[in-house]
Design a protein that fits this description.
This is DUF3077 domain-containing protein. By secondary structure, the protein is an all-alpha fold. The chain is built from three helices and no strands. Helix 2 packs antiparallel against helix 3.
Length: about 100
């Protein structure tokens, strides 16, 4: 049995030397595609922040007091994210045009 296993390992080593080993299974539920372009990542980030902003503004109409303050604080943070991504988009488009 050991000789058979050794033979298979040797054959695999020499005949499949260029073959890539399969990636180990991931334990993460969601991930970002490795080959996603910068443009795709920026656009999707912007859309995500915009969606969060819309949801928070809608939700902040109903609560009062501390809950409203928290919703508005989260909204402000998401708006900062939008501004950062927007600036990055400007830089990327300016760099692409030159």
């Amino acid at each position: 049995m050991k000789l058979n296993q050794a033979a298979h390992r040797a054959i695999d080593h020499y005949l499949n030397a260029g073959a890539e080993a399969p990636a180990p299974p991931s334990s993460t539920l969601f991930c970002v595609a490795e080959n996603a372009s910068s443009e795709t990542l920026i656009a999707n980030s912007y859309e995500t922040f915009t969606s969060v902003t819309a949801l928070l503004l809608d939700l902040s109409d109903e609560p009062t007091g501390k809950q409203r303050d928290v919703a508005l604080a989260i909204h402000q943070l998401s708006e900062l994210g939008v501004l950062l991504v927007d600036k990055l988009m400007e830089r990327e488009s300016a760099g692409a045009g030159s």
